[in-house]
Amino acid sequence: MNLQELVRSLRPESPREFDETKPIAMWTEKDTSKGEIVDAFVLILRTRGCYWALNSGCTMCGYINDARMEPVSDENMEIQLEKALKRYRGEKVVKIFTSGSFLDPNEISPEMQVRIARAFKDAERFIVESLPEFVTEKILEPVVQDNLEIAIGLESASDEVLERNVNKSFRVKDYIRAAELMSEIGIALKTYLLLKPPFMTENEAIEDAERSVLFAAKYSSEISLNPINIQSHTLVNRLWKRGEYRPPWLWSVIEVIKATKPEIGDVRLVSWPTAGGLQRGAHNCGKCDKDVLKAIEEFSLTQDLSVFDGLSCSCIDEWKDVLQTGDSLGFEWRID
Q: Which domains does the chain have, with CATH numbers?
């Protein structure tokens, strides 16, 4: 069994039933725009789901858990949008997620892509996610507007990591093509990077993330460093349950930030660890997690490295030992 087959075998046997007229979730959080800390409106629309998750999927991604499998009609997408607009309070930043690619016409029709984009044209930042496969002139032309930003989950600047650790649908050259096209059109790029894909030691994960931040900074206005969290029906979840994977340390998040932020100039570097401080998310010993997470959040909003000054805990020594000796949870994956 190769990696794609293994990841696919862990998917739910049958999709759950969903209400196609209700978004998956909506909430407000803090972000930045034009150098100020502002409110951001976050909307996760219900769609058929990520095409790659439906075919195989990434080793860490639980998008399949929210996949509808069948297309959602424009009529029901419009109802979802209407419900979102009733909740929207003019937040300056709007983030639209679909558990897949906003620009995939099989998830959201081109007509609805335009309808949604225009509904939030007055926001200062309108951010959507997409795989680079759908970042083309033909798809972009109808939805381009001054506030549009596109987020792409590159995960790693290494093709080997993308293939053997993440099981990504594309390679680095595809990201570069999409990034260069966006630059020509004048669309800002936000890049997601992973910290600690499976089959890596903690130290290997830090080194890969640092290299990837420096690479992505050449193309991005913002980089989001995402430490892996354990999601159901994923290969990472299977490894974690067998004691063969530990989410990254929060100290590792800080290590990557401190090593790379001085090198990338005005490119924003942020990290919002999902499930941070929990066993399924990036965590330290438990005693210091709250303070460390607060510092990471403050840095993400201010870009001020001094927020990490004075952070300390006895578990730093354990973390350093892991980096020096290599933990037992990183091992080589061999594709048959």
A: 3-325 (3.20.20.70)
**H or E, element range at 194:** strand 188-195
CA distances from 163 to 2, 197, 202, 268 (A): 11, 11, 19, 27
pLDDT in tens, 36-77: 999 999 999 999 989 998 888 999 998 888 777 789 999 999
Q: Taking the CB of residue 102, how many other CB atoms lie within 10 A of it?
A: 24
Rounded Cα distance between 256 and 196, Å, is: 11
Residue 90, Cβ density class (10 Å: 0-12 exposed, 13-18 middle, ≥19 buried): exposed
CB 257 within 8 A of CB 299: yes
CA distance linking residue 113 with residue 139, whole number of Å: 10
pLDDT digits (tens, 9 = 90+) for 238-270: 999 999 999 999 999 999 999 999 999 999 999
This model's pTM is above 0.90 = yes
Residues 6 or more apart in contact with residue 321 via CB below 8 angstroms: none
